[in-house]
Amino acid sequence: MRYLPIDNTLFKENRRRFADLLPAESIAIFHSSEQFPRNGDQYFPFRQQSDLFYLSGIEQEKTILIIAPGAPNPQLREVLLFLKSNEVLAQWEGHKYTPEEATAISGIEQVRFVDDYEAILRDLLFWTKNIYLNFNEYPKFFSEVVDRNERMGTALKAKYPLYNYCRAAPLLTQLRMIKSDKEIELIKLACNITGKAFRRVLKTIKPGMNEMDVQAEFEHEFTINRANGHGYQPIVASGKNACVLHYIDNNAVCQEGDLVLFDVGAEYANYSADMSRTIPVNGRFTERQRSCYEAVLRVQREIIKLYTPGNSITQINKRTEELMEHEMINLGLFTRTEMMAQDAKAPLFKKYFMHGTAHFLGLDVHDVGPKESILQPGMVLTCEPGIYIPEENIGIRLENDILVTDGEPVDLMAEIPIDPDEIEQLMG
Ligand code: GLY
Ligand code: MN
Ligand code: MN
Questions:
Q1: Same domain for 227 and 130
Q2: How far is residue 269's CA from residue 343's CA, in Å, rounded to a whole number?
Q3: Residue bearing the CA closest to ligand 1, atom 4
Q4: Is 274 in the pocket of ligand 1 (CB under 6 A)?
Q5: What is the pLDDT of residue 201?
Q6: Dist. CA 177–CA 169, nearest whole Å
């Protein structure tokens, strides 16, 4: 991997906290990501399953982790099973972990090859009642393709029906929502790399440049700073394109006089940053662009103050909407009278701001954690208000990543330029 080695106490501690949540006579089984076929004999680039990484730091395909805190044989309380290499595999695909490397990365003493899976499982199952399986439970995510956890888990249930099968996802969610100091450090690195890339773009962008060339500037900076790449599909959207929330074509020319919206985040050691910035292609905001920009920035600055223990995403969204209504009236997008008469089911602000303000961030860009959760120290969330006015060729989103603490919220992107005067000065 490109990132620098991570002290394995992070993964040891994660496993300990997970094991503490398991009732007696339980085991939990975690599988790596699938190698997803692309076409012909090609796979999509491999990206480790986030929970398996969280619990082991292991990046390799076909890896299995078993956590069995109550196993009578202490050697089987944590077992990592991974691919056995051979000369042909090494020749064609490169190096696979040796047992010593797998132990050094994960801190797991008991490392075995996947061929031993069935034998180890049968040893463990003799005293087991509950088997925890790790299915993807992300709300509103529907895939026609099952992942390896689901595929192997379903086969296990069919083969060993006389057990109580349980969900690992709620336990992992509970743990992953609160970031440890080491995780916060890794997220900060992802944010810093993203900030460096943004500064590079501020210096290079000019009218006539294609959105894809701007994307390449981000990628160049990501790569030379040891990022795996993007944490999600990058958005480089000039002019009207910025009003398409998930615009990812990134192939239009950035025109003189237009704004360009970036929603990009580097992924470092599998931790993602999530940043949005909007800048004038030619380095100077028009009066109208600046008014809209400052409205979004005012809302963001006000809302960040709510990232404190006791609040929730639901409350953050609600307050953002109230502030947005006020800003939109001042921008002349609708009048107070029109707002008072609006259909409560289709409020007017939704025409110009139609998405939520916050989501959890971590190993996944839309990290685990329900939006009803009460904020606690150690949570990291985005703050991303926006205003989209296609009839004026204006789409603005400003997105920073915020750490909830015991005291004031900490803006992990505080160093990334956002003030419009600073943006103009840096572009000048
Ligand atoms: N980049 C995805 C999001 O902002 O939610
Ligand atoms: Mn976001
Ligand atoms: Mn984003």
A1: no
A2: 46
A3: 274
A4: yes
A5: 98
A6: 12
From the CB of 61, is ligand 1 less than 6 Å away? Answer: no
Tokens (6 digits) for 31:
């599988």
Q: Which amino acid is at 356?
A: G
Picking from 80, 72, 167, the residue whose alpha carbon sits closest to that of residue 126 is 72
Question: Is the distance from the beta carbon of residue 232 to the nearest atom of ligand 1 less than 6 Å?
Answer: yes
Q: Are 208 and 253 in contact (CB under 8 A)?
A: yes
Q: Is 284 exposed, middle or buried (0-12, 13-18, 19+ CB in 10 A)?
A: middle
How many angstroms is it from 357 CA to the middle of ligand 1?
10
Nearest atom in ligand 1 to 384's CA: 4
The tens digit of pLDDT for each residue in 101-115 reads 999 999 999 999 999
| 235 CA distance to ligand 3 middle (Å) | 8
Q: Are strands 110-113 and 78-82 parallel, antiparallel or unpaired?
A: parallel
Can you give the CATH number for the domain in which 94 is found? 3.40.350.10
* pLDDT tens-digit series, residues 327-372: 999 999 999 999 999 999 999 999 999 999 999 999 999 999 999 9
Distance 263 CA to ligand 1 centre (A): 7
Tokens of 184: 């916060």
Structure tokens at 30: 């975690």
**Closest ligand by atom to 276 CA:** 3
Q: Is the CB of 365 under 6 A from ligand 1?
A: yes
> Number of folded domains in the chain?
2
Tell me the three state secondary structure of residue 380. strand
CATH of the domain at 185: 3.90.230.10
* Distance from residue 288's CA to the centre of ligand 3 (Å): 24
Distance 169 CA to ligand 3 centre (A): 24
For the CA of 397, the closest atom of ligand 1 is 4
Phi, psi torsion values for 386, nearest 5 degrees: -155, 165
State which residues form the domain around 44.
9-176
Other C-beta atoms lying within 10 Å of the C-beta of residue 29: 23
What digits encode the pLDDT tens for the residues 294-337? 999 999 999 999 999 999 999 999 999 999 999 999 999 999 99
Do 367 and 187 form a contact (C-beta atoms < 8 A)? no
Do 207 and 110 lie in one domain? The reply is: no
**What residue has token string 């329900």?**
370
Distance CA 350, CA 329 (A): 13
